[in-house]
Amino acid sequence: MKMRSRIRCARGFTLLQVIVTLAVVSIITTFALIGFSSTRASLRLQNSVRQLSGYLEKARLDALRRHGNSTVIFTSPSTYDVTMDFEGAGTVSTRTIPFENDVSIISTPLPSLTFNWRGRISACTLTFAVQNNRGEQSWIDVSDAGDVTINSNVDVLPNASYATVNTNSSVDSTAVVSGNAVHNNTVDCVGSGSGVAGPPISGGPGCPDTATPSSISIKKSGGGTATITVTATNTGTVSVSAPINLKVTPASQAVSGGSSVTFSIVSLNNTRGTFAVNFNSPCTTLTVLVTVTN
Q1: Above 80 in pLDDT, residue 192?
Q2: pTM of the full predicted structure?
Q3: According to CATH, where is 3.55.40.10 located in the chain?
Q4: For position 257, what pLDDT does the model report?
Q5: Whole-angstrom distance between the N-terminal and C-terminal Cα of the chain?
Q6: pLDDT for 178 beyond 80
Q7: Class assignment of domain 17-191?
Q8: Which end of the chain is more exposed for a tag (fewer CB within 10 A), N or C?
């Protein structure tokens, strides 16, 4: 009996046991690799955004220190040029900074920022979004004062109402503010990220298709809906392509020549900025700019 037991133990694992073990190991390894890949993609996005915000802050401080201009200009969705005095020696130079792999700007147009001698920019609030290859998104706000924030809800200050202040024993009569009006906090900036509906986009010569309006704004995370009307000259299909943070319904529609179809656009998350939504009509591609705000 002892000899039989020893022989049975010496046989080792069966082929079925080996196959099951290898299958379990393969499954665990696959999930581990997927998790590792996802983590690396998230880190690349975070590192790229933090590096960009760091250069924005450095450019602003350099403009203040030199009483001159410093710029951060995107030359492609994944690279930007920083022009400033990097060494603090009074010599301005330009360096090209790349994002990490598979990270790019998804807002339009590509950001271009100039900090003046007061550390300010010309836009009231400039917002742009960044995305990695897994669809994770982040956004940056640069206010007209030059303040840089990441994934925050900074926006233009609201207008402030004021009224007449009556004098009394505790108020200097020369300090009276008279009137009943609204102070506009945006008088020192020439633009904002709020989005304004523009004229209809035309398909150009030989293709008079239009999309109306050509630009519009909606609130983030389902806070509002934009409606776009596409008018087509030829019979066919109008299909849509949009970034993943926007949902356009329906995805496509059949259209008869000379008629119009309507699409609805809604924001799916908190990502803010201005994004291009393309409507592919039977004879051209019409681009509508959708600005997502607070």
Answers
A1: no
A2: 0.71
A3: 17-191
A4: 86
A5: 81
A6: no
A7: alpha beta
A8: N
